Amino acid sequence: MSDKDLATWQNWNQGLDPLDLKSLADAELNKRDVIGKLISGELFGVEFRRNFQRCAFRNAQLSDLDWKRVDYKDSVFFDVDVRDSAIGGGSTVSCTFSRCRFVRCSFEDAAVHDCAYDDCEFIECSFSDSMIRNSQLIRCRFDNCTTSNKLFDGCRLYENEFRSTWLDFRAILDNFGLDSRQLPISSVREDRAYPSSTPWPIDKMLASTQLETLSPFETIKLQFYLAGGELLGSDLVDKAFQPEAWILLVRAPVNLMRLLQDFSEFIFYLYQADRLQALFVLKLTILAEAIWQGFRDHPTQLQVGQAAAGTYLQCLQRLSDLEAVIADRVEGLAPEEITYRTFDEASDLAIDDLVKSFRASLPNATIEVRPRNSPVDIVLSNLPLGGAIFLVTLFFSTRTRVELSRLRRRVPHSRQEKMQIVSISLGGAQEGSLRSALSVQATLPGTTIFRLDVDYSSALVEKIKKVIKALV
After folding, report:
1. Predicted confidence band at 249 (pLDDT cuts at 50, 70, 90)?
2. Is the torsion defined by CA of 233, 237, 243, 246 positive or negative?
């Protein structure tokens, strides 16, 4: 698809014929559905009982509308202000909302599916008995709104703000991206507690065995929420990247495809926003490849394989900077010795803990701690080539997208053109054990892949991120 074709598809609504709803009599207005029209300007006090399909609402000011049980499909809303209106009871499917404002509106008993909300405001609105499913909300604000449940299910929620607005606890576990900066803990109520606002007993739950019943994905979501929007490495988090966890959790292929798309979008969003180290994209690469390989030969489930293949290719695209800096460091590498240098403020306890992790992962290596005036050098020697590359990759995988981009700019362009490494794959944790396999294989014409498969824990990377400053 050319840039011109893409622009035409994105701006499909620019050439729609305008429709002035105010000029139509009630009988004519409710005679048929509105299809492929542009609605703009001011409109108030209108009762409507039909539906909108492939319409565009632009720069519209709507108020005192009675649009209960109206359906919206494949429509866009840009810079729309809606006030004191009843617009619930219907379904909204595959619609886009950008810079819209809803004030004192009723969305009661509304069903929203596969929609996108960007920079929208909801002020003193009612969402009783409503549900927003499989949608994305970015930089939206809910101020003093009424909800009767978790409101969101299977959604991606980023950089939103909930003021004086309560949500059920399940909103944390059933969506990606929700954190305590968006929804304060004080605004989380027990499930199905409405109309009361019984606070979610966070201290009681964290101290109980209830956490053991959570799936790996629910664990990630809860940890992400409590950490204020930071994904921290741990053995529990690693489980979500293991193909076995997906097989046990998701039975229907369509649900597996949806979960993979939502999970990868969550990882990509954080990485693009420079809030996530490259390790998690590496682990997602291996997960996507495993699902792709598992489903590609099943003709009745090709969509799952295609979704996984698309995720895999997106991972490789995002890892190009990591690949370049690793290849630059590996070129001419003498594998006998790798030296890590700690931060000045790294504590002796943290350094000792990291060394113990290295000993568990590399039992045949010689590890020495060399004190200096302030930082400490951790020297790992007696290494095979695979182990040395593993340690180089381990260090750079603690870096974020912006950090890797800066490092790549230091690599001479002439050297980048000669690089052979185009894919480095690392898998999930196996409780400290290390499997390394080094091979070179051709995949596409003219493409050579230098492939390294390693199992290690994101908890180890978390320690390195906090302790190690440089690879000497």
Report:
1. confident
2. negative
Q: Which residue has the tokens 């362009």?
A: 413
Identify which of 434, 429, 447, 444 has the alpha carbon closest to the alpha carbon of residue 389: 434
**Residue 343 — very low, low, confident or very high, per pLDDT cuts 50/70/90?**
very high
Q: What is the pLDDT of residues 184-227, one digit of tens each?
A: 999 999 888 887 777 887 776 666 556 678 888 898 999 999 99
pLDDT tens string 127-162: 999 999 999 999 999 999 999 999 999 999 999 999
Interatomic CA distance for residues 282 and 272, integer angstroms: 14
Please give the CATH topology (third level) of the domain spanning 9-206.
Pectate Lyase C-like (2.160.20)
